[in-house]
Write a structure and sequence with these properties.
The complex is a heterodimer. By secondary structure, chain A is mainly α. Chain A has 15 helices and no strands. Chain A is globular and about 95 Å long. The mean pLDDT of chain A is 95. Classes of the chains: A mainly alpha, B mainly alpha.
Chain lengths: 455, 62
């Protein structure tokens, strides 16, 4: 009998060990897969941005977008991942949070490289790097056809490796002060990715100025149509596809030493979630955005922007909404797009792809929707009495996100402008950036050129 | 900066880092991080120079 019990115990131990290995491999593969899915976001932004560009600037826009991605990767390796872990208490890290940064994200430490006992750090870093590159891609579209490449890369570095990361440390970590002190809830990063990137772009646009020909002397705006709306539409659909990876990566899988639960998926705040909840609400927000944009504009550009805007509008509360509620919130966001875009044009802002509107305005709407419709939910995992979601908490978060985008975007671009590193030469802008500086042609056999007022 | 292990069994048994120079206290991580930063800065400088030259040509009508 004792011998049989010993055998049984050994078999149970073997099974437990095998289950643990399987869980670890699942967790590692789960986040690993989010990375190529999120690269689809960049494929999409690349197409979106190039399609929205006039023929004479297509490849320059593509080069810029690709470089944003490329420079964000080492930038996030050197500094961004450390900022996420170390900057949770506020503007100045504490000794404890600094040490946390060193423990988890030291680029000259051993865990930030091939490490046989660590199946998590690399894949988490990779997923967060894709978030970082997404912020830079969002900004990239707004500034097409007139920004200098070096100035742009510096701005992409500041946004992707510092600005949004501070927002994430404050509002997308169970230790972040916005979460612990205000109950800020932003599951799908409507504020800390989209609003920060959108308003960072606005800060740049104020200093960068509009494209030549965008505005008439009386202040009215011209529509500078891109050379390929079909590429724009396909690009936007690819961004939507990539969003599934983005939002999948916002989930903490169970069963690991760093997990919140042994058998339940969690948000980054430790609150429970299922992928089923995401499937319901992403699709319903997406559909609400398209349908409202179609009803209000009939314009395919705004319809697909509405798809993106619908998801962004729902993003902060994707873990919480009823699906029909997500539909309505997405539709409301889509309805806000054109008024916001026209208001910016009235102010003389040339946002070439509507990035400030779709990501900035709707990012704020997404954050505030949680403060309106999800008041009272516990903001963190924990006992009764834990801080709850509130209107004022979301409002503080929205203001912080706006400022974390707008202020560094404006200040850094102002400095670059003073050093002549922001705006391309006028002659190059008129002639086109591709023939001026790109050693290859987008369409060597030619397509019908667009006729723009500036030409 | 090369391997500090004789066999892959040693790597598995250590449960630790195994990139070139790992665990050797050589400070090789700093070296490579600085080199990677230098490459990016050099690329930016070359990009800025190329762009400035291109814009000058455009402004001079060449």
């Amino acid at each position: 009998m004792e011998e049989q019990l010993a055998i049984l115990a050994a078999q149970v131990a073997d099974l437990q060990a095998a289950a643990a290995v399987t869980n670890t491999m699942f967790a590692e593969a789960y986040y690993y897969i989010t990375i190529p899915l999120m690269i689809l976001i960049h494929v999409g932004f690349l197409g979106y941005e190039m399609g929205a560009t006039r023929q004479k600037n297509v490849l320059a826009s593509g080069v810029k977008n690709i470089l944003a991605f490329a420079f964000c990767v080492p930038g996030f390796y050197w500094i961004g991942w450390f900022v996420y872990w170390a900057w949770t208490p506020g503007l100045i890290p504490t000794a404890e949070s600094w040490q946390t940064g060193l423990d988890f994200a030291n680029p000259v430490g051993e865990v930030m490289g091939p490490y046989i006992g660590d199946n998590a750090t690399g894949v988490f870093w990779g997923a967060f790097t894709m978030f970082a590159a997404t912020t830079a891609s969002i900004m990239s579209g707004a500034v097409i056809e007139r920004i200098r490449i070096v100035g742009f890369v510096i701005l992409a570095f500041v946004l992707g490796s510092i600005a949004w990361v501070v927002a994430a440390a404050w509002g997308w970590s169970a230790a972040g002060w916005l979460v612990t002190d205000w109950g800020y809830h932003d599951f799908g990063a409507a504020g800390l990715v989209h609003a920060v990137a959108g308003f960072f772009a606005l800060g740049i646009l104020i200093n960068l100025g509009p494209r030549i020909g965008k505005f008439n002397p009386d202040g009215t705006a011209n529509h500078l149509a891109g050379h390929s709306l079909p590429i724009v539409l396909i690009g936007l659909m690819l961004i939507i596809a990539g969003f599934w990876g983005f939002l999948m990566a916002c989930v903490i899988v169970p069963g690991e030493g760093w997990s919140w639960f042994s058998g339940t998926m969690a948000t980054i705040y430790g609150t429970p979630i299922t992928l089923s909840a995401l499937a319901f609400n992403i699709l319903m927000g997406f559909a609400g955005g398209i349908i409202a944009a179609w009803a209000l504009t009939r314009d395919p550009f705004w319809m697909m922007s509405g798809a993106l805007g619908g998801i962004i509008s729902c993003a902060s509360g994707l873990d919480l909404w009823h699906p029909a509620q997500a539909f309505a919130i997405g539709a409301t966001g889509a309805a806000l797009m054109r008024p916001s875009y026209r208001l910016l044009e009235k102010w003389g802002i040339d946002d070439a792809v509507g990035a400030v509107t779709i990501h900035g305005t709707l990012g704020i709407w997404g954050v505030m929707a949680v403060g309106i419709f999800a008041i009272g939910y516990p903001a963190l995992q924990g006992d009764p009495g834990v801080i709850t979601i509130s209107f004022q908490g979301q409002l503080v978060g929205a203001i912080v996100m706006l400022l974390l985008g707008l202020v560094p975007g404006y200040v850094v671009s102002w400095i670059l402008h003073r050093f002549g590193l922001l705006r391309v030469a006028e002659a190059a802008e008129l002639a086109g950036l591709d023939p001026t500086k790109v050693p290859s042609q987008a369409y060597p056999e030619g397509i019908a050129p667009s006729a723009m007022p500036a030409e | 900066m090369g391997s500090i292990f004789d066999t892959w069994n040693d790597v598995v048994a250590s449960g630790g880092a195994y990139y070139p120079g790992a665990g050797g206290g050589s400070g090789s991580e700093w070296t490579w991080v600085i080199i990677s930063i230098a490459i990016c800065l050099l690329a930016l400088w070359m990009g800025a120079k190329h762009e400035t030259d291109a814009f000058n040509r455009a402004e001079n009508g060449n």
